[in-house]
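Blinded run. Sample ID left blank on purpose so nobody reads anything into the name before looking at the predicted structure. Input follows.
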Amino acid sequence: MTGSIPQRNAQLETLRDLLQQLGVQPEQLLADPMAPPVVVPTFNEYVWQVAEAVSPGTKRAYHSYWRRICHHWGSRRLDEPTPLEIKRLAETIRTDVVVRRNARGGRTAAEHLIAAMRCIYRHAVMDGLIAETDNPAAKVAKPRRLASTRRAIPETQLAAIVDIAGSTGNDPELDSLLIRLHTETACRRGGALALRPRDLDPDQCLIYLREKGGTSRWQPVSPTLMRHLLAHHRERGDSNRDGSLLRYRGGRPLTYRRYDHLWHRIGTHLPWVAAQHVSTHWLRHTTLTWVERAFSYAVARAYAGHTGKNDVGTTMTYVRAEIQEVAAALAALTTEPHPLTMPTTDADDRQPTARSPLPT
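Blinded prediction complete.
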C-alpha cells in the first residue's frame, strides 16, 4: 500500500502535464460532452439585461458607466476582454472624466467603472456564461481611495448656511426645511427624496428613512421638524400617501437638482462654501461628529443608520444603541423633548459632553 502512493502521485503529475499541454482545465472534464456549447453574449446584448435585474440605486450609479462600456466594447463578447484591457479602459475613463468642482483626479470614475464591470461579470458567472476563475474584472484592483475632505462644520459657519438658505432663492421655506431635515437626522439626499407622507409618524415624532444599500430605519425628529413636514405636505402634497413628500410649490417632486442649486447659491454668498466644496453630506458629518463626541460611538452609529459589520468588531453586537438613545441624542441636539425619551432620575440623567452645533 505504501508503495502505491508515490506511484499515484507520479501518475497525477503526468496527467497534469498532459492537461497543460492540451490547454484543458480540470473542471472542463466534468462538463457534459453532449451539452450544447455556451453562447457568450456581447456587452450590447447582456449589459441591459443586467440593468433590469439590479436595484434602482445600482442602476443609477452604474448606468453612465455601462453606456461607456457599450460604447467602447459593445460588439465584443464578455469572454474577450482581459484584466489588462479593463484596467486600460478604466484609465481612459479616468482621463476623460468631466472636471467638476470637487474632482479628485478621476479616481472615482475609474473606481466606478471597475465596479460596474464587476457587476456585469458577477451576473455572467451566476448565469454560467463564464467561470468564476475566468472573471477578468475580479482580477483588476480598484484605485486606492483618498481620505475624505469632508468635516464637521463649526457652529458659526452652520448658522451662516442656515441664514442664507432661509433668506435667498425662489423657495427659502423649502431650502430651510431641507437644511433642518439633514442636520437633525443626518440622512443622505436619497433618504430625504424617498420620503413619503406615510413615512411620517407624528405621535412618536419618527420618520421612515430608506437609503442606499436597501437599508431602512425609523429616525427620530423633533416636534418642530415634524410640524413643518406635515405643513409642507398639506400645502404642496396630494391625496397619494405613497407619493413624494418633498415637493416644489407647484407640486412637482424634488430631485437631486434642488440640492445642486441650493449649494451653488449658498456658495455665491459664502465663498468658503464654494472653495471647500461643502455639500449636504457635510451636514451629516457635522451631526454625527457631535453625537459621537457628546454621547458615544454606538449612538452615533445607530444615528447614522450604519448596519454593516466590515468596519467594526464583534463587540458592536453587544453595545448596539436603541432608538430611545438616538432620540435622547436628538433631544440634546435640538434642545426639544422627544416622545421616545423616558424621564430619568437625577442620578441617571445623561447630559451631553459637547454643546449642540445647531444655531440657537
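Unblinding after everyone has recorded impressions. Residues 183 and 225 are 11 Å apart (CA to CA).
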